[in-house]
Fold this sequence. Notes:
Elements: E1 14-18, E2 21-26, E3 30-33, E4 38-41, H1 48-54, H2 62-78, E5 82-85, H3 96-106, E6 112-116, E7 133-136, E8 139-142, E9 145-148, H4 169-172, E10 175-178, E11 183-190, E12 193-202, E13 206-208, E14 219-220, E15 228-234, E16 237-240
Parallel strand pairs: 4-5, 5-6, 6-7, 9-10, 10-13, 11-14
Antiparallel strand pairs: 1-2, 2-3, 3-4, 8-9, 11-12, 12-13, 12-15, 15-16
Amino acid sequence: MTNVTNTRKLPAQIQINVRDQKLTLLPQRAIFWEETQFLLLADLHLGKAGHFRKNGSPIPAAVHWQDLVILGTLIEKHQPKKVVLLGDLFHSTLNNEWLDFPQWMEQYAPLKFVLVKGNHDMLPEAAYNLDQLVVEPESWIEKPFLLTHKPVIEPNNQRGGWKFPKSSAKTTELYNLAGHIHPGTTVRLGLGQSERMPCFFFGPNIGLLPAFGQFTGCVRMNAQPPDQVYGVVSERSVVRVV
């Protein structure tokens, strides 16, 4: 674990090089891919609050709007050519929170959003028929990356019951960027305190994005060199952990 005593001294964002591509890790839990000008994020989970309310949990509807406000701020700041959503854009069955999404997108027209479908993206096909939304059923290749929701290459040294497909010659030619796991790490804050937080995880052949949605948990990654882990300390800072 990395010892962090003053987050004000930490970098607001960190740029790394993966397969000769510059990826800027943003504290808002997204990646800006410099060469293509794409904004990448995973696991927005719109509608999750509504799903919990339907089942009796008093979760305010404002939760998903906060996520869209953050995403809108990133779009305005970075002016991406595309926004790439690595699955679980929407959490469950159709509800009013999904109906808000097309109206929200329209303010950024003609910007295109590419959704690589995740396991929670199970709305009727007609719901995805939106002018600004392009849907890829399982994966999208944008060399040198294979963009998926669930990882198709197993990270090193993982334990805890996650079942990853075995690596194959076909997939290892490309570097897999994925979501789904909601990776997390633990950072020491000083004075004997520590905190679990979302993280970006990069192994030799796979990178995992933290969940973009605020109403999500995280799973601690077991990382060892040459793995690299970057913790999202706050909405203002990203720090190298491993």
